[in-house]
Amino acid sequence: xxxxxxxxxxxxxxxxxxxxxxxxxxxxxxxxHTRPPSLCNFLDAPELEAFLGNKDEAHGGRWQVVYRNYATxxxxxxxxxxxxxxxxxxxxxxFVESLDRAFHNVCELxxxxxxxxxxxxxxxxxxxxxVLETNVEEIDVSVxxxxxxxxxxxxxxxxxxxGMGNGLGSRGNLKFPLEWLTGKLTAGVSLGPR
Length: 194
Prior knowledge:
Layout: E1 2-3, H1 21-33, E2 42-44, H2 49-52, E3 63-70, E4 73-80, H3 85-103, H4 108-113, H5 115-125, E5 126-127, E6 130-131, H6 136-157, H7 159-162, H8 177-186
Antiparallel strand pairs: 1-4, 2-3, 3-4, 5-6
Helix pairs in contact: 3-6, 5-6
């Protein structure tokens, strides 16, 4: 995934690459960026053989670039010829819908500041180059459960951060740091008439 300037926002490779990841991304960007919007969203890319290696005829024989452009982002999958182009376009749609549910109207800054969650969402859909899940509802449930587990873990490890004494949601006698400091500063200070 990269923006319209060619800056990578997410890269994930499931096969070995023969050159550096930034050079592969720049080559893919040069192929996709110059295409007019009126053309279809997939193309054969023999130019990528130098970056990704040759494909033998038994496994599709050629590399294909399948992409969608949403606002300022290109979502790109490079697949072998055995994959269905329309199936990959549908997979991109599932990924974008999952991101949109997780971030409520996703934008490029969400991808920058929450890259760990973006990687998690992608790993719920694809593992080791194989598609695991395409049901957006199931992906969203899994992402929400992971988000809640992360919050619970953070709260139990850092009780002062959320004002939770035991990590179970009750504050008990534990105060927020500012409440504690305010109590110390105002102790003994009378605001009423003498």
